[in-house]
Design a protein that fits this description.
Layout lengths: L5 E7 L12 H10 L3 E5 L5 E6 L6 H16 L5 E5 H9 L10 E6 L5 H9 L6 E5 L2 E5 L11 H8 L3 E5 H12 L1
Antiparallel strand pairs: 1-3, 1-4, 2-3, 5-7, 5-8, 6-7
Length: 182
């Protein structure tokens, strides 16, 4: 019996921001294909890859490491990878905690689950008017005055939770969920 392919979404941290860590999407696709991934598609140039792999959820950390290594070897760029299955990404979209208006929502996909104490520290921060909600390995943030004016910066989030992540706007999250669903 052949192994079933799983649909994955890879979210690369910090690529194509400014002049550093530039990766052409064709090179990124080629690196994923060379690492044994199938049906590789990228979405916008911020490091979003939808692909299939026979690696299941239990092999997530090994798959992420294999992809990080493949990208670094192919492009010279080191970037951490947050992996989510198609079902996990659909659940992220379904769990939007701030009502129907998603126009100022971002999701930070964490590389690991934060501790309960770290989540309490985050919830205790005074970041108004920003709103924040942690659901497992995702952090939903509403920036009513825009990301550039937000009080909860990525650096503050990383420091408070002691876990790195990679941030995407809601449009990107929703589109990746659609692409992963097929």
């Amino acid at each position: 019996m052949a192994k079933r392919d799983h649909v994955w979404v890879a979210l690369l941290r910090g690529i194509n921001l400014g002049r550093n860590k530039r990766i052409a999407m064709a090179d990124l696709r080629a690196a994923y294909e060379a690492a044994g991934c199938g049906d590789v598609r990228t979405y916008i140039a911020s490091g979003n890859v939808v692909f299939t792999s026979s690696t299941g959820v239990r092999g997530r950390k090994a798959l992420a490491k294999r992809l990080e290594t493949a990208v670094e070897e192919a492009t010279g760029v080191s970037s951490r990878v947050a992996l989510r299955t198609d079902a996990e990404l659909a659940a992220v979209v379904e769990a939007h905690p701030f009502g129907d208006d998603t126009s100022s929502t971002y999701v930070t996909f964490l590389l690991d689950r934060p501790t309960a104490a770290a989540v309490r520290r985050l919830e205790a921060l005074d970041v108004e008017p920003d709103l924040v909600a942690v659901e497992g390995t995702e952090v939903y943030v509403r920036y009513p005055t825009g990301l550039a004016n937000g009080r909860l910066t990525g650096a503050l989030l990383d420091r408070t939770l002691a876990v790195q992540g990679t941030n995407r706007n809601w449009r990107t999250v929703a589109r990746l969920a659609e692409l992963a669903r097929g």
